[in-house]
Write a structure and sequence with these properties.
Elements (H helix, E strand, L loop, with lengths): L34 E5 L9 E4 L41 H9 L4 E7 L15 E3 L2 E4 L4 E6 L41 E2 L22 H12 L13 H16 L6 H6 L8 H5 L4 H6 L15 E7 L4 E6 L12 E6 L16 H4 L49 E2 L15 E2 L9 H34 L22
Parallel strand pairs: 3-6, 5-10
Antiparallel strand pairs: 1-2, 3-4, 6-8, 7-9, 9-10, 11-12
Amino acid sequence: MANDANSPGAPRMVDSRNNSKSSTDTNTPLLQDPYIYIGAGDSAAAGEQFVSLAVNTNQYGRTFQDRSYSFTIKPLPTTDADQNTQKDTPRVDAALMKQNLAAGGRIYNVNVRGKRGNIVQVYPSVEYDFVPNALALSTKDMIHFQWTGSDYNPRRGCNNAEGGPPDPNDFRTAANAQDNSRADRSNIVLTEHLAKNVPRDYLGFDPSDNITYTLMKQQAKNYIMQTAPCYNPATDSEDIKNDCYETIMRLAYLNQQMDGGALVLRAGDKCLTEAQLNAIQNQDVAQNHPLNCAKLNAKPYPYFDGGVMMLRKSGWFPFFSSRNNNFSNRQQNGIICVGNCPVDSYSGVLQDQNPVDTGAKVTRYTASKCTDTASGGTGANNNGATSCISPTPSTTSTILTTETQTTQEGDNDNFGDGNQRGCEIIKYNLNNVKTTEQMITLAIVLLFVGLFAAWLAYFLYNRYKLRLEEKTDHRGETKWQKSKPNEVEFT
């Protein structure tokens, strides 16, 4: 047999050179259910021992689903570079990388695994998750945040995932936003604790305050830097603080506002404001709109390079993806521990602690503003439940005494590219009938239903009445069943 080019002396792998037209062709090493001899037998009379393999030559060499990804490992940068928002490239501190590596530090690659869909739809893959999602590091270690994905997952609906951009994507309008989206997007937002599921306060001020942009930017930077792993106020300069803030915001918002390539594709259009998104009555259109930066839709491609983060401050730094983490089994979050990290000596697993359970004291931070988009007659989705909890819940709250109501959505598990449009929604009320055209259509449909019901009732009544009026001289008689038939003589 020929030798493999990469392993001299070893049998080469089977490839197209072994294609054969029949089972008698000696060019193929594959035979249908071949017999393999394993012994001389218990005796000469008993005969040799052999087994049969389960080899179906029609299936053996086929690739049913190719899930392979190719990737390239780049060499370590040798020169420093500033962040370039127009070219969408992160900051590079090659000198500090080299210094940390010489001191025993390592660069850890944090990326995203999984794909769009619920746990059944993505099998045997998984739903979105960070890999690795728990790191115990030192201040000499570094993290390279980067991930990729696909814009062409099968169209799914109902508990699929959130956000667009739509396919096809015109980058500007809601032309295709009502279709089920297919794209993968992820981001990283800091949170107070893995059990919180909401971002830390990134602002430090009330968005309704009447202050200048410069003051807002400065206050936001000062506030979030208190809990960022890439800045230590006790030792670091203002330049390091600015660099860290750039990295934190790049990971959270993916440079959507300044990405030069994205701006060209959307002809310079800005991200939609909260008021503009709230004005879109269709929830699918609002979530999938290519200018909905809150859902990361303005990023025109799935690959993202967040750059290498330097770890300068000890502590716990939990994070999650605001787009994909939906507080259930689709839990895309992670934890970075820098410094004295409680790692189990037997399993090597970073041990988390819930301050609510242990009684440990933690620093309190104000939760970021939550805007309710799921409830109310004028919201993007007036079928959903309230998505924000009041910051000052009533102390006199009691058990619900009235019936609650929800919307049931049908599942979507089509083959191939899946369903183009959103899931069917079964409604139990008519709150969505708002326009004159909808009211007229509903009235006509109900009119015809009523006419048909009245005609059917009239028809059944007349049939019943006619049967009662028929003659009943012989009704109930059974003698004829026992009598012999009359004999008729033919001549």
